[in-house]
Structure to design on (258 residues):
């Protein structure tokens, strides 16, 4: 049962407080945004790939964008309550640098969550205060999480940064940038990111396209070219695979109504 659930700051920030009174297990194929889960009552078990994280009150788990195979388990007789935050933007932050991890949080940080307004009227009236409070929380939270020291990640980091900053590139080009053969690049990429090079490329292209659709009046055909597609038809196919029924035109219409 969802106690409180409202969209914060349009489609870029969500805060949900959930109350589970029964055993629940559910999965999602991939997360295309950052997520922080903060238990208030009860133990929570979250599986990311082959790793299992247990999170209890006084702790929080950070899940970076793009990771796959997420399973949430809420078992036991006692009720489970947690904050579930999903958001698109993290100031001065590279999600690739930070793996999923559990951290201890203080009462002061938890109090910031309680200060975030989540009634519809409060969101409309106090959106600036909403953003300020939430990013105060993120500022404190970012100081708690640790970057990865994984050697394989550091090896392909130049490719990940290039993909984020540019729109036209090939696997061969990025393999050379990392000092790897093409076959080795594909293997290491999949091991580190959890998805193939082309899957991650399409994810980034779709996110860039969504931003352009919601913030500009550039035509869909031109957006497809900007983010690196030679064919508008292929762009629509990739976009549909990522967003389901939300095709480019529909996302633009939805954002025009906000």
């Amino acid at each position: 049962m969802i106690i409180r659930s409202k969209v914060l700051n349009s489609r870029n920030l969500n805060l949900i407080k959930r109350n589970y009174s029964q055993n629940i297990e559910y999965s999602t194929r991939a997360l295309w945004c950052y997520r922080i889960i903060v238990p208030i009552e009860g133990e929570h078990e979250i599986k990311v790939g082959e790793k299992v994280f247990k999170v209890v009150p006084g702790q929080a788990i950070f899940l970076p964008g793009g990771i796959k195979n997420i399973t949430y388990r809420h078992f036991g007789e006692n009720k489970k309550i947690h904050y579930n935050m999903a958001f698109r933007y993290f100031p001065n932050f590279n999600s690739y640098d930070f793996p999923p991890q559990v951290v201890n949080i203080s009462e002061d940080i938890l109090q910031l969550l309680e200060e975030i307004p989540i009634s519809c009227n409060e969101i409309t009236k106090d959106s600036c205060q909403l953003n300020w409070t939430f990013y105060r929380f993120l500022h404190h939270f970012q100081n708690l999480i640790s970057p990865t020291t994984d050697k394989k990640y550091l090896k392909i980091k130049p490719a990940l940064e290039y993909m984020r900053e540019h729109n036209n590139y090939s696997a061969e080009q990025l393999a050379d940038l990392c000092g790897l053969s093409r076959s080795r690049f594909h293997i290491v990429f999949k091991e580190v990111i959890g998805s193939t090079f082309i899957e991650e490329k399409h994810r980034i292209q779709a996110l860039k396209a969504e931003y352009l659709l919601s913030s500009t009046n550039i035509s869909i055909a031109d957006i497809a070219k900007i983010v690196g597609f030679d064919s508008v038809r292929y762009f629509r196919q990739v976009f549909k695979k990522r967003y389901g029924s939300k095709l480019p035109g529909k996302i633009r219409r939805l954002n025009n109504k906000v």
Summary: The longest strand covers residues 13-20.
